[in-house]
Amino acid sequence: MIRCVAWLPSLLALINLMRPSFFHHLHPPTIPAPQAQWRYTLGAGGIAVFLVLVLIITGALEMFYYTPTPDQAAHSVQTITYHVTMGGVIRNVHYWAAQFLMILMTVHLIRIVFTGAYKPPRRFNYLLGLALFVIVVLINFTGYILRWDQGIQWALVVGTNLLKTIPLMGDYLYEILIGGSQPGSATLIRFYAWHIFGLTLLAVILMGWHIFQVRRDGGIAVPPPSLRTDLQRITRYELVRREVLAMLLTSTVLIVVAGFAPAPIAAPIEEITAFSSDSRAPWFFLWVQQMLKWGDPFLWGVLAPLATLTVLVLIPYIFPHPHESELGRWFPKSNWLARLILTMIAVLVLGLTLLGV
Amino acid sequence: MPEIPRRDFLKLITTTLLTACGLLGLDTVIRFLHSPTNSPPQTVFDIGAALEYPVGTRTLLPQIPVVLIHDENGFSALSLICSHLGCTVEKKADGFICPCHGSHFGENGKVLRGPAGKELRSLRVETTPDGQLHLFLN
Predict the structure, then answer these.
(1) Which of B38, B63, B86 sits opposite A187 (nearest CB)?
(2) Domain range for residue B68?
(3) Domains, chain A, with CATH or none
(4) How close, in Å, is residue B22 to chain A by CA atoms?
């Protein structure tokens, strides 16, 4: 113990030597103070990046024990959860970081629309953000399926059968995804490959691009200098200090939630067609499951979610943009229509989700 | 015929060739991914001797999953895979209910309540000369 403490000054000296660190290199020298506030950005984008880091680390650790075969998968998840030292914590943190990421992405999207920050030149980055949103939903779904237990059985069957309802190319798409005419070992290894590599690689590349594009577009959206009332700026040291604070808070919340609310787990699947009463979709698809109860699967399970996404894509293209002087704050008057549309979508999705809980 | 400047012509050729290469590559990847490696599911089931299922009985065979019906007309079977999106339906007092989206089917497989649009599939059952029952999924 004493020896460790003795090492501390030299360790600090080493960290000091490394300045200006790579961490600082990622930040602009200064940013406008009024927009660097929690109540403006909600810190959503930044925390989402941190959660992705947490997911990559905990996910890599899970890979040391997880076995992607139908007869081993659920058992290996049980081994990680109940047998491996600290395995339960790692898995719960991975699970909760993934769910928080979904929520923060949504909050981030709402923040962007409610502050009108998608206005050109940030329109392209808005699209990159939406693409990331879709990919993260797919990563979450494929990860959910990797449990290969009775809790995910119907989500797998329903989710993949929905592809079959697409006219002309449906069956072909289904076979590409499943690796046969019925879910089996090829399906699990395919979902595994998409989850840990294909989709994740795509997400990491898009994430880098998304962040790069923020700086390219001139940082957080603010009015031009001549229209600003507050010209104060904060330094990158202050920005990093706030980011570290956000990371510490997020880590605390993650560990506490992971300690009290374990990730779902169920008995292994015996046979893919065996009856299972656990029929609830993953929480972020409960709204789709609710719509599927209304009838035609192609209409409610494929077209309706795609239409929702299309409306989101069109927001910066068809609705009036906020005026330049209105940038950098919440609720700019001139984009009320975009805000109304997003609110309606949010209320609809939330309402349907609550019906399905 | 209008003349195309040499530069534009070469550009057009380059773009066309590059696009063709890209499409060929994409086609290769799609075909590669489409190659099925799951062993095809079993389609014929030997479900034992016909004598084990007397006239007037309905037997649940959960491992297939079907209900085997033996009435005056002979043997028939009803698939328990929901015709909506493929979940396995559950036997209730008045028919079958799908746990996923709540479709309700009657004892004979007819739709009593949606979202399912089609009735439960009727499957072919054959008796072999030595009195064994064979059930066909297709």
Answers:
(1) B38
(2) 44-136
(3) 37-277 (1.20.810.10)
(4) 19
